[in-house]
Amino acid sequence: MLSCDECIKYAEKKYICPHCETILSCCHVPPFHVGDGLGWGTEIFYVCLNDECKLFVNGWKSIENLYGHVGSYRYMLLPGSKKGEAMMVAGHQAFKGSEVDIEEMKATNKRHQKEKEAVAQLDSCVADKNLEPVMFLILDEQATLGDREKAIKLLKDLNDLSCIDPIRNHSFLKADMAHMVNMALLDLLKANFKKECPHCSEIIKLQAKFCKHCQQKL
Ligand SMILES: [Zn+2]
Ligand SMILES: [Zn+2]
User: Fold this and answer.
1) What are 113-124's pLDDT values in tens digits?
2) Angle ∠(144,147,185) on CA atoms, nearest 5
3) What is the DSSP string of 115-134?
4) For residues 172 and 65, what is the distance between their CA atoms, to the nearest angstrom?
5) Is the pTM of this model over 0.85?
6) 134 C-alpha vs ligand 2 centroid, how far in Å?
């Protein structure tokens, strides 16, 4: 299988259909079903999606003559191979809409890289007083659950109250994650003899009777 970087590199390449001179579309391969035999061995491939392509226009007749059913051919090329081949398709719509979005692919790749870096920094972040990787994982809803939990547990040891605002401003998709984070913040505040004002959410002294921010009685 191709790595993300390889996929992006391939997706940026341009190839021409030998039947119609149109630039081939780079598409995601269709989902692989168990029982189909071999998979595609790749995540992306190139295909000519031009409906005026000679191969496609003439394909209907040859498939009807050869197999007696409805279908045609699209020119397709696998990444890394020099020669493409005719691939049977059932209709006009086949593979349309599965074109690779390179920008989206790059963004996903970047997020993966950042996640990997953040996870690698977890073991040393307390010694380095580095809150950043912990915050990245806690606030990234797509990060692995186990890594996010590990990051939450480090909040108390990091003892950095600047983590509170961004966490309070984040909506957690999972209720148990929200609960876990909330408990960790309460622990952190308590360890610093602080609490959040229930009226205005500002951080105040644990023993305060009045909030110095909103003047409300506690
Ligand atoms: Zn073509
Ligand atoms: Zn207040």
Assistant:
1) 999 999 999 999
2) 115
3) HHHHHHHTTTTTTTT--HHH
4) 58
5) no
6) 28
